[in-house]
Amino acid sequence: MNEPQKEAVEHINGPLMIVAGAGSGKTKVLTTRIAHLMAQGVDAFNILALTFTNKAAAEMKERIAKILGNNEARNLYIGTFHSVFARILRSEATRIGYPSNFTIYDTDDSRSVIKTVVNELNLDDKHYKPNVVGNRISSAKNALVGPVAYSVDSYIQQEDIRANRPALGQIYAAYCARCFKNGAMDFDDLLLKMFELLNTQPDALSKYQRKFKYIMIDEYQDTNAVQYQIAKLLAAMNENICVVGDDAQSIYSFRGATIENILQFQKDYDDVKVVKLEQNYRSTQSILKVANEIIGNNKGQIPKELWTDNKLGDKIKVVRAMTDNEEGKFVADSIQEQKLRNHYFNRDFAILYRTNAQSRSYEESLRRMGIAYRIYGGVSFYQRKEIKDMLAYLRIIANPRDEEALKRIINYPVRGIGKTSIEKLAIVANEQNMTMYEAVGRAGEFGFKGGTLESLQNFETMIRYFQTLLAEKNAYDVAVLVGKHTNLVKELFADKTSEGLARYENVQELLNSIKYWTEIPDNEDGEVGTKDLGAFLQQVTLFTDADDDKENGDVVKLMTIHAAKGLEFGCVFVGGVEENLFPNAMSINTREELEEERRLFYVAVTRAKDRLWLTHANSRYRFGQLVQNEPSRFLDEMPDQYLDRTYSGGGAKNQGMSNMGSAFERMQRGGQQAYSRETTTAAKPKPTYLPAQPVAPKVVEHRPSENFVASDTSTLQEGQQVEHQKFGFGTVIKVEGSAHNPIANINFKLNGEKKIMLNYAKLRIVE
């Protein structure tokens, strides 16, 4: 152990704050300190160690067991806040009116109770959605605001009135009463009721103050108000409290965590000893230098500077891509290249991003390359409920025989077709040997009446309307209309919780994917407009049906930066380092919010051990529009001597900026084409329900002129004469599309009128 680590381990009595920088060995210090306390005669029953994850608690127990043996380790109170407090409350619950065998409600249970309460109070469940109400109640509990205090706080009441939910306090009180009547506590209650026990029962407080003579709290910067108060109460008698944390990694304010807890710790205890663990054992010098510069821009922090004896290492690569899809392709290409050149395994790589919706472009690129991956802290993009719901609508439009898709969306969003009616439709379809969709169209013949019959008829009319669009609109236009007319997008947009916002962003990302897919040419000739909805759904099916081999541990890991905290990886890609994405547009209104975003970026950078890539895209699809982006301000805060700024992709318009010309990359493209041919072959024969592919008109091949050299088409205008390598000579009818994605309508003498994407096609301007 180094000297600061030894100093922390050997400190026994009195308050201790260990400021543990990223990769500085804090888990080793914690476990060794517990072993040292016991070696000095402290009874294992008198030691309490609190963590935030079961994984961290299990790791600590395992290490201590190796040092002391299993028998002594079992006597320690080591666990998460929730697990330890639940254990205590089991034996003390009767003091606060609960049975000792109280039920612990999970999130679904809690939302179900809230829904019941809302109905009983005759409130509009569209305004009082269980998730919205549940999150508000959770925030109140974690801030130690009970139902009575909630209802008399004028500021809180004004917030609820502005949000058009004035009865939220009434729901909160009724919810708590219902849980109490049911002998149940939700997750937040495990903290709140522990505080209530200690705060209202002096003998219980004295009992646990005497029992827990030595208290250790990991990740102290992530504690919220109720956790902070419990720790103060338990430590008040002996003040042998040791907190371990890093203010630079405080990134959970949205969960109620407050960085002030660690910043104010020295004011809470007069004789506190502060030990800083600043030697990093994880990362290269280059990565640490960059990390120190980044976090140095925050004003509210405990001064420290990480250093390491590790090698200098490679420079951090800052990579600009033209689009988010190019960004995904670059990451997949780089992973394959690193595996070949430096003998890495898939498990050595992590792709980190600010929002879950960003995973789509990485997933698609990794699948095309045949690189195994796994989504952590969430599900695969195309397996998310909101994505499956949207795709189910598109599936039923393309193929009305798809019964699974029909059952999924016939009553979503809610349109008055209940479970009993759906079951009846399935029975009728089986008895009459017809599809469920046909049964819907003939619902009046099978005894459906009143509002249910009307809802079924309206649903069938809506689907038939969507089907009429297939012949005249592309996949993206159809998908946008589906989202609008079904109210699916509207319902997701109305949910202003963090979860609801994420679901809305995911559906927008799906639409972006369809938009991009409809606009890229089928081939290198740049021709546009031959793709339909059935073809898109086939492509998605190939993606989602790929074998991820979930049991195989050799996978690239994809996760949000929040989910990556506490982890480390050999090679890290941080994507979407752009203004309004990272830092997030919703988190730059105050200095406190911006500094938390910077801490999140610091966490991302310090996950890397050997190599680090920071990528950003010039343009990214948002809400169906290609939006131009600025690089994140965080990129300007890093010292240039440790950076290698490069460019990726961009097509013919960006020759000289692309780094895709190496022998490896040409080999890789060949591999991709082979992989594409293989998967296409494997997908045949095509499912019978897909619409027949239109027969492309025969192209009259043109032999390019001997002097053919592609021209700069950035100023191409109507009326100009051009030559295309395959289609021959033609006249430009008009140039449309956006400035960064221009499309030319050209009338070719031999092949008629065609739409050509100028960023992909090679044209020679004749005159």
Give keywords:
alpha/beta; 15% strand; 767 residues
How would you describe this structure to a colleague?
- This protein is an alpha/beta fold and 767 residues long.
- Helix content is 45%, strand content 15%.
- Strands 9, 10, 11, 12, 13, 14, 15 and 16 form an eight-stranded mixed β-sheet that branches. It has a six-stranded parallel β-sheet with strand order 3-2-6-7-1-8, sandwiched between helices.
- α11 packs parallel to α13, α16 runs antiparallel to α29 and α25 runs antiparallel to α26.
- The longest helix has 22 residues.
- The radius of gyration is 30 Å and the shape is globular.
- The termini are far apart.
- About 8% of the residues have low confidence.
- The level of helicity is 40-55%
- H/I helix tally: 30
Radius of gyration: 30 Å
The number of distinct β-strands equals: 21
Q: Low-confidence parts lasting 5 or more residues at pLDDT below 50?
A: 523-527, 544-552, 650-696
Derived structural class: alpha/beta
Give the distance, in angstroms, between the N- and C-terminal Cα atoms. 76 Å
Portion of residues in beta strands equals 15-25%
| Shape, principal axes of CA atoms | globular
Give me the oligomer status: single chain
On the 0 to 100 scale, the average pLDDT is 82
Question: Main sheet, how many strands, which sense, barrel?
Answer: 8 strands, mixed
